[in-house]
Amino acid sequence: MLTQEGIVIKTIKYQETSKIAFILSENGIKSYLVRNANNYKSKNFSYSQELIKLSFDVAKKENKKDSFEIITSGKVLDNYSNIKNDIDALLNSIEILEIIYSLSMHTNDNHTLYSFLSKILDLINKNIAYRKLYCLIFKTKLLYLLGIAPNFSHCSKCQTKEDLYSLQLDSGTSLCKKCFSLNEAIIYGKSYNILRFLYLTKVEQFDEKIIKKIIEDEKSINDINEFLDRYYDYYLGYKSQTKKIANKIKNN
Ligand SMILES: [Zn+2]
Fold first, then answer.
1. How far is the centre of ligand 1, averaged over its atoms, from the C-alpha of 180 (Å)?
2. pLDDT of residue 64
3. DSSP state of 203
4. Could you say which architecture CATH assigns to the domain 82-251?
């Protein structure tokens, strides 16, 4: 019986034929040595690829020079093949894995992080058409796990819980319609309401009708994406490399 379960977030080549695999599990991200992983005929090849869910067993390396644990056997639980057959879904998923790889040290709750990632990848894989929204849901809800949750509960000036209308970037707090004034570092109006909805609504509660309504509103989706990119940059100094590359591909 294989004892651990995880999702391969990133791999790098190691020595001639091996790979280091960074795997997120309920215990956080750990790096493992996979021998012979570059040889497609090897049994280790299949599960040492990025974007794979696997179960696996490990052994400590005899050589004490470096402390990698070695994966001794593994089995692919999900290959996310629908995602891999769709370039946009793949780019969205790589963006998600990149965020996890870069920022997971900001969370203490790896148990929730792992089950959340697993859930989102399942949803994208099953509903390729909604990939963009699921990626957005991921980035919105992750703010809580990263300890930089925006305050969507009341207006930071007058404390009212009614008619909330905007979110300030620099304070991460909401303003109501009366207290709102336009400046550059905010998201407001309809885009704010959708962002708030994405943040507060459980993933399970997004039914087809709601999803379709949100993804029709391209302007709001773009606003939210842009705001979240600024938010990640402002609080964690994080800029997505995947996005830069994706934009280059699309503009060519
Ligand atoms: Zn107010």
1. 7
2. 62
3. G
4. Up-down Bundle (1.20)
